[in-house]
Known about the structure:
Shape: globular
Largest sheet: 8 strands, mixed
Distance between the termini: 11 Å
Helix content: 40-55%
Mean pLDDT: 90
Number of helices: 10
Structural class: alpha/beta
Amino acid sequence: MVDLSGKKRVVIKVGTSNIAYKTGNINIRRVESLARIISDIRNSGREVIFVTSGAISVGMARMNLSKRPSDTPGKQACAAIGQSELMNIYDTEFTKHNRVVAQILMTRDVISNKERRQNARNTIERLLEMGVIPIINANDTISLENLDFDENDTLSALVAKLADADLLIMFTDVDGLYDKNPAEPDAKLIPVVEKITQDMIHAAGGKGSELSSGGMLTKLEAAMLAKEDDIPSVIINGERLEILYDLFENNAVCTVFV
């Protein structure tokens, strides 16, 4: 068993399918629960950086679009519409628990440019010192290529590295990494991964839900990125968000990349 109870600075990443219905509309009950639990974890003394997807989906719902735009300007327009509403929802829910949140939108050039990277690092550090929960999303409206990040899995790993996090937690819609397609009856959960193999990468092929652009493969890539800085990663089921409590008590069903 991997002991995660002592991790103090954590990055928690949720995907679109974790916070929105298939219609694209926000799952209010899920977001309320997410804000409550993250606030409680912050109250316990841990520092939390929250990476979220969902702006494009929320924008689609707001404009009554039944299908995700296929062109980049369409996606960027939906992101512009949805981002403000998404942050308004988060601000409302976290305020209920006396927590202040701050928005940070990032693109890949923030990571690759030394000065911008340092500015982002400084901002995150100061926000955490102030007791604020940074909420980070990709700045899809000005992204240069392919909206920069796949469902923000890569972004969450880069943020973990940038912030010198102790742990990266990625929510998905299954319990973790399986040795084959989890829909198959004999699929087995892999609780601890010390090395990501080609077999794992092959088994993880394919994207997530219709609303998302990521999947298990991008989470493996994120885990490999975090591993470069000796940051352990967790893939865990977001259907029951209270599982975060189990995780820090070392009782969660999940996959840990050590």
